[in-house]
Amino acid sequence: MFDIVMPDFAGVYSFLGSVFDPSTSGHLQKLKEMNPIDVETALLLMRNLSINLTSPDFEDQRKLLSLYSASDGPGLGSSRSSALATSAPFM
């Protein structure tokens, strides 16, 4: 019989979140320490994200994200946050 191997989704998403956190490092080492199924899952999710973000369907979201700077923070009085509030009613 075959053993069913499931990815550790909590670990995979934690790793993916750390990739976008500028205060963390050592991502390649962490990837090398992960189980093969978790590595494959992380790479598939990153590939999917890359495809989605380059899709013309996401042009409006890319424009919106380009208005936001992490150094500015989500200050409510800034012109950028006002642009976000008016452009993205779902936020």
UniProtKB/TrEMBL annotation:
Domain of life the protein comes from: Eukaryota
Disordered: region residues: 70-91
Pfam families associated with the record: RVE6 (PF24904)
Protein name: Protein REVEILLE 6
Origin species: Zea mays (Maize)
Classification lineage: Eukaryota, Viridiplantae, Streptophyta, Embryophyta, Tracheophyta
